[in-house]
Design brief:
The longest helix is centred in the last third of the chain and has 22 residues. The relative contact order is 0.15. With 218 residues, the chain is α+β, with helices and mostly antiparallel strands. It is 31% helix and 33% strand. Bound molecules: coenzyme A. InterPro entries: 4-PPantetheinyl_Trfase_dom (IPR008278), 4-PPantetheinyl_Trfase_dom_sf (IPR037143).
Length: 218
């Protein structure tokens, strides 16, 4: 399947999803890769990982970017080349990107704001390891299946905050905590208390097939 769907987070922020059903050869033939990406692809041993990487490039092409517009910093955080400086239209703002892949899905989110996203398959294991990354009292009184979903959302929120901030030393259980929210709300707020600075972010989440998608905005 080619492009799967998009989710509008707000007027400046859209997430794009690719559901990978293509053979790796097809994906490889249909994306333009720069030399760095070809070298990176060669280091990946799993076919699933390679396909996820190529599907991200398909999504970039889908929204009018190329692989060469994507740059990574020393920590592995992706950035888009800033085209606003050269643009005649001064209303064009620098664009931010965040990337996630999980099994047969790849996802990119593009925004005028700083963002972090995560896509995570619903699975029991996330609930089992929940005490390692969250306050499990936030799962009280839920059905077993809702506990899995909520733990997955909270995991995704913490991964997304981590991706947005991109700072070494952030601990999921010690520095990131979500305010109480209901699954029906599909949104909430999350606090980061790190290096004696307190920050609050908004998050939204949605469901894509059997996956939980989370986006955190600055
Ligand atoms: C880097 C990290 C966020 C990636 O998340 P993941 O769930 O393994 O994988 P995802 O598919 O969701 O995300 C991968 C993408 O994140 C992006 N990414 C990698 N490092 C990043 C960083 N430092 N900041 C922002 N984005 C980053 C990349 O775009 C990457 O995909 P690409 O290299 O193919 O472009 C994760 O491995 C990590 O280090 N998390 C924090 C670890 C931690 O504190 N865990 C605590 C558990 S209690």
């Amino acid at each position: 399947m080619p492009f799967f769907k998009e989710i509008n987070i707000n007027e400046d922020t859209t997430a794009y999803f690719w559901k990978i059903s293509e053979a790796i050869e097809w994906l490889f033939e249909n994306v333009q890769l720069n030399d760095k990406s070809i070298s990176r692809l060669e280091t990946m041993s799993s076919i699933e990982h390679k396909k996820g990487f190529l599907a991200v490039r398909m999504l970039l092409q889908h929204v009018g970017f190329t692989d060469s517009d994507l740059l990574y910093d020393a920590f592995g955080k992706p950035h888009l080349k800033d085209k606003s400086k050269k643009a005649k239209d001064k209303s064009i703002l620098p664009q931010h990107i965040s990337i996630s892949h999980s099994h047969e899905f790849s996802c990119i989110c593009i925004s005028n704001q700083s963002i972090g996203i995560d896509l995570e398959k619903r699975k029991e294991k996330t609930l089992k390891i929940a005490p390692r990354f969250m306050d499990v009292s936030h799962l009280e009184y839920l059905s077993e299946s809702d506990k899995i979903v909520k733990a997955t959302v909270i995991w995704g929120v913490k991964e997304s905050v981590f991706k947005l901030k991109n700072e070494k030393g952030i601990s999921f259980p010690n520095h990131i905590s979500e305010s109480p929210f209901q699954l029906e709300d599909k949104k909430g707020t999350v606090q980061l208390h790190f290096n004696e600075v307190k920050e609050e972010f908004n998050f939204q989440f949605d469901f894509v097939d059997d996956y939980v998608f989370v986006c955190v905005l600055q």
